[in-house]
DNA sequence: TTGAAAGCGCTACCAT
DNA sequence: ATGGTAGCGCTTTCAA
C-alpha cells in the first residue's frame, strides 16, 4: 500500500452515472438496440450468433443494466402485475400463510405480486390509485370494493378482479368467504352440547366488523327457531375491558360464549377465571382460528378451525381469468369451518 | 320495448372498449392533449379558461379516464414509488403497526408505498426484480440485501436505499435494529435477579435466525465475565418439541430461560408447568415483544419491551435521502429494549 | 389561452 | 443475422 501524503480534497464519490438503458448496452456491445432486446429476452423468432449474444450479455453485465419495467409494459400494452391492497391491520398466521402461498403460486405463473399501501383512501379513490399502475389483475380482500371500483379497474385494463369477502360484487370474480359459517359452527356446537344462553364477543376494533358481523349472524342463524338466546358482547382487546365484562358476567346469566377468535377467547377466559368463573362448567368458551395458543390454555380451548382456500387455487383462478377475461365471473364459496372440541366446552 | 323473436347468438357482452388515454379525453373535450394534461394536473404555470377546464374534467369523468403511471414516470424520469419486500413470514402486531405508520407517513409525503412479493428469489436477483420497477426508494428489513444489491438499486436510479437490520450495508442508509440489545436486557435482568444458569431458546423456524442469533449473542454479552452460563436451546414452535424439552429440563439444571419472544415463552412455560416445574421459583422465564398474551399468562410473563422507531421517523429519513441522495448514508441505532418485570422472574 | 411535437425506454415489425 | 424505426401514454417546451 502506497502512502499518499496530503490527499487532495476528497473527490466527489463516483460521479453519479445516469441509469444505463438498452441503448447504452447496444453502444458498448457495438450492436443495435433491437439486437440487445432480442438477446436479453431470448427471442426465439430471431437467430443471433453466439459471439454477439456474449458481447451483449457482457456489456449488460458490465453496465449493471436492468430493464425498465414501465417502458416495457408501456410498449407491450400490458403488464404481469397482480395487485392487492396491503392489509391495514395485523393479520394472523392463517392469512399470512395464504398470502405467501398465493405469491409463490403466482410467481410460478410468472406474475409479479405487489401489495399496494392504500391507507386512508376510500373506495373508488383506492381503485383509481390501483388502476394507475395498470395491473393485469387485482385481488381485494374484505369488502372495500364496490361495483364502481370494479368498473374503474376493468376500464383501466385489469383483466381480472377478484374479491375475497362476504359477498359478490358486480363484475368481479369472488372467493366468497362468508364468516357466517364460522359463527354457525360455533353456535351449533354450543347448542348441541346443551348450552342455551349464548354470548358472542364482538371486537371493538374497527376493520374487524367485516368478520365479526357475519360471525355473530352465523351464531344467530344456528340457533334460530330454538329456545336458545344470543347476546352480543362488545369487547375491546384490552385487559380492563375484559375484566369489566367478567365482573358483570354472572348478571348476564350466560352459559356459553363464542369469543370471536382465539385471541379474544384467551383474553376473556383469563378474565372469567380471575373472576372465579369455572370453565366449562359455568360457562363454555369457544374461540376461532385454531391457533397454537388455544392448545396452550388450561382448559384447552375449543375452537373453530377455518379452511381457507389454498393460494394455489386462487392463483389458478386468477390465471384463468386473465387468459379469458370475457368469461363471466365465477363465485366460489371457499370458507369451511368445523369446531374442534377441546376442554373449554 | 320491442319484442325481438329468436335473438341471434348471444352478443358478446359489452364490446370491451379499450383503455381510454388522455388523447381520448382531449378528443371528447375538443382540446389538445397538452391542455388535458394541464387541467388534470392543475398546472399552475399555465392559465386555462374555466369553461375549458370543466369540459376536460367532464370528458375525463365520462370516459373513466385514469392516468397511466408507467407512462407518466417514464416521461418524468422518476417515480414516487417506495418499495419494500413483503415479509415472508407472519409478522407480529409490532411490526404490522410500524409498517402501517410508515405507509401513512409516506403517503402524506406523496409517496406510493408498494410491497413486492419476492419469494424464493435470492439476494441480487431480488434486487434486480425491484430495480425493474425503478422505485425512488427501497426499504429492506432483515439482512437479505448485500452491497451488490444496493449497487444494483442505486445504478437503477433508486435515490435512497435503507436497510432495517442488524448491520450497515455499504452504500445504504441503515436503521440499525440490533436485536442484541433485546437479549442483553433479558440477560442482565436475569443475572440481576440472581440467576446464573441461563437457557436461551432459539426458534427452529428459519427466517427467524436474523433475530434469534443476535438475541442469543446479547444474552451472552450481558453475562460475559461473570460466573453465569448460557445454554442454547433449539426449539420448534410446536407442543411436542416443547414437551420434549421440558422433560429433560431438570437434567439441564437451568434456573432461568430467555424464550426468544412471548409466543415461545408461552409455549415453553406451559410445557414446564405441565412437567411440574414451578415458575419462577425453579426456573425464571422471560419473553420479548411485550404482547398482550404475556399479561394473560399465570404467572404473568416478564418480557422485554421493544422500542421500534416510529414510522414517521423512517418516512422522514427516506424523504431526506430522496431529496439529497448525495448525502452520505446515515446509520441510526433505533432499537431500544427494556425488560418489564412481571411474575415469571 | 391553446396546440404541435419531441422524447422518456422498450419491443416488434420490416428491411437489408 | 442484424439494424432502422414506429409507437406505447404522458408531460413540457416552444410557437402561435
What does this structure look like?
2 copies of one chain form a homodimer. By secondary structure, chain A is an alpha/beta fold. The first copy, chain A, has helices at 22-29, 33-40, 50-63, 69-76, 93-108, 123-132, 147-155, 180-192, 209-223, 239-247, 249-252, 262-274, 292-296, 311-323; strands at 81-85, 112-116, 137-141, 160-165, 173-176, 197-203, 229-235, 256-258, 284-288, 302-307, 331-333, 336-340. The model of chain A is unreliable at 1-15 (pLDDT under 50). At the A-B interface, helix 4, helix 5, strand 2, helix 6 and helix 7 of A face helix 4, helix 5, strand 2, helix 6 and helix 7 of B. The first copy, chain A, binds a DNA duplex (16 and 16 nucleotides) through residues 21-23, 31-38, 41, 43, 45-49, 52, 67-68, 70-77.
Q: Mean pLDDT of chain A, rounded to whole units?
A: 92
Helical residues, percent of chain A: 40-55%
SS field, number of helical segments of chain A: 14
Rounded to the nearest angstrom, the distance between the terminal CA atoms of chain A is 77 Å
Q: What is the overall shape of chain A?
A: elongated
Strand order of the largest sheet of chain A: 2-1-3-4-5-11
Counting DSSP E segments of at least 2 residues, the number of strands of chain A comes to: 12
Gyration radius of chain A, in Å = 28 Å
Oligomer: homodimer
Q: Uncertain spans of chain A, ≥5 residues at pLDDT below 50? A: 1-15
Q: Largest interface, and how many residues on either side? A: A-B, 66 and 66 residues
- Beta-strand proportion of chain A: 15-25%
Largest sheet: number of strands, sense, barrel closure of chain A: 6 strands, parallel
Amino acid at each position: 500500500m502506497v502512502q499518499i501524503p496530503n490527499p487532495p480534497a476528497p473527490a466527489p464519490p463516483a460521479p453519479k452515472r445516469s441509469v444505463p438503458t438498452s441503448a447504452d448496452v447496444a453502444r458498448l456491445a457495438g450492436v443495435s438496440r433491437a439486437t440487445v432486446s432480442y438477446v436479453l429476452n431470448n427471442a426465439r423468432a430471431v437467430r443471433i450468433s453466439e459471439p454477439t449474444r456474449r458481447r451483449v450479455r457482457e456489456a449488460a453485465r458490465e453496465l449493471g443494466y436492468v430493464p425498465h419495467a414501465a417502458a416495457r409494459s408501456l410498449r407491450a400494452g400490458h403488464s404481469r402485475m397482480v395487485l392487492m391492497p396491503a392489509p391495514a391491520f395485523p393479520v394472523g398466521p392463517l392469512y399470512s400463510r395464504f398470502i405467501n402461498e398465493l405469491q409463490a403460486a403466482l410467481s410460478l405463473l410468472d406474475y409479479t405480486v405487489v401489495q399496494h399501501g392504500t391507507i386512508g383512501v376510500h373506495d373508488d379513490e383506492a381503485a383509481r390509485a390501483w388502476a394507475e399502475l395498470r395491473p393485469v389483475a387485482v385481488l381485494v380482500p374484505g369488502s372495500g370494493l364496490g361495483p364502481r371500483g370494479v368498473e374503474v379497474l376493468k376500464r383501466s385494463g385489469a383483466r381480472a378482479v377478484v374479491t375475497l369477502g362476504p359477498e359478490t360484487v358486480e363484475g368481479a370474480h369472488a372467493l366468497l368467504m362468508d364468516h357466517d359459517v364460522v359463527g354457525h359452527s360455533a353456535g351449533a356446537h354450543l347448542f348441541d352440547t346443551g348450552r342455551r344462553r349464548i354470548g358472542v364477543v364482538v371486537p371493538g376494533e374497527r376493520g374487524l366488523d367485516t368478520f365479526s358481523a357475519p360471525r355473530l349472524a352465523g351464531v344467530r342463524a344456528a340457533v334460530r327457531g330454538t329456545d336458545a338466546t344470543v347476546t352480543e358482547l362488545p369487547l375491546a382487546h384490552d385487559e380492563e375491558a375484559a375484566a369489566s365484562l367478567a365482573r358483570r358476567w354472572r348478571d348476564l346469566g350466560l352459559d356459553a360464549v363464542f369469543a370471536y377468535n382465539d385471541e379474544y377467547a384467551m383474553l376473556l377466559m383469563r378474565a372469567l377465571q380471575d373472576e372465579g368463573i369455572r370453565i366449562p362448567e359455568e360457562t363454555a368458551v369457544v374461540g376461532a382460528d385454531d391457533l397454537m395458543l388455544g392448545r396452550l390454555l388450561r382448559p384447552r380451548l375449543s375452537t373453530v378451525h377455518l379452511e381457507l382456500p389454498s393460494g394455489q387455487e386462487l392463483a389458478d383462478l386468477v390465471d384463468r381469468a386473465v387468459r379469458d377475461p370475457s368469461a363471466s365471473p365465477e363465485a366460489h364459496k371457499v370458507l369451511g369451518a368445523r369446531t374442534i372440541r377441546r376442554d373449554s366446552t
